[in-house]
Design goal:
By secondary structure, the chain is an all-alpha fold. 82% of the residues lie in helices and 0% in strands. It is built from three helices and no strands.
Length: 71
């Protein structure tokens, strides 16, 4: 629960400053994935799954945009 609070408060605030920082989004995704417990019920657990998915999707989208610009 403490880690989830840190993810929400600090890492995501930092990403607002630089939304293209793939290393930061990847860190958010990995942190949320480490907290997530498959099959465990609860809103907080579901939130960690959603946070991880969202962060990894952002990384994929940013990398795709960079690849398009470079081609």
């Amino acid at each position: 629960e403490v880690m989830a609070h840190l993810i929400d408060k600090y890492l995501q605030q930092g990403m607002k400053l630089d939304p293209t920082a793939t290393f930061a989004w990847r860190s958010v995704g990995l942190s949320a994935l480490a907290i997530y417990r498959p099959g465990e019920p609860g809103d907080e657990n579901a939130k960690m799954a959603d946070t991880a998915i969202d962060a990894f999707e952002k990384v994929a989208n940013i990398v795709e945009q960079i690849a398009v610009k470079e081609s």
